[in-house]
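Protocol step 4 of 6: structure prediction from sequence.
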Amino acid sequence: MLNLGTSLLADQNERRNRISSKAYVELREAIITARVAPGANFSETDVAQSLGISRTPVHEAFTRLFDEGLIEISPQTGTRVSLIDMARVREAVFIRSTLESAVIANSGVKPDPALLDEVELLLRAQERLVQGDDMGALHRADMAFHAGLLGAFAHPRAWTACQHVSADMMRVQFLIGMKPDHIRSVIAEHRAIFDKVRAGNMAEAALLMAAHIRNADFDQLSLEREHTEFFRSGDLP
């Protein structure tokens, strides 16, 4: 006997999960690229109306953002984007520089040339975005390069771990560093890392990767004092 009710429920749940995931991705990108600034207030109702969806998938997306530390939810003040925590930034720099360089240097995997060809295409796509002002596209291209490179070394879950801890680190970069000269510098570093990998010089590629990520430490020295409201009190150097 067919259980059509169960099948329909499964389809509904799958559709809701897709909508929730899409809402999460869109909200996360808006927060990381500073289109929604630290400290900004918003509600499930506002977001649901803006995205044209119900509140249930928005609530689920909010739960994921809360778990990641990107939003704060309080009965008294409602929901707001979390202020940037510089301790989390420094922790993310340490984790990513250590893990991503270790994958390149110590994975024992020789990347498949076809996978490196795909990373090359990702890098070229990023290079084409230099003159634009689409922060979302730049963010996605940056993430795609790092994800693709770690995937080429057969460690895609290493990138998942890196991405989970680096939201505040990326927010700092978008708030103060995403200027054309900075973007060109980031992409040039990506190109240098990739060229070393392509040439089979994994030790130097790993050193370049670690230095590339640690450059975020220097970004905090450029924080403009008129934007201290974006950061947790006492975090600035």
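Step 5 (inspection) to follow. The CA atoms of residues 42 and 97 lie 34 Å apart.
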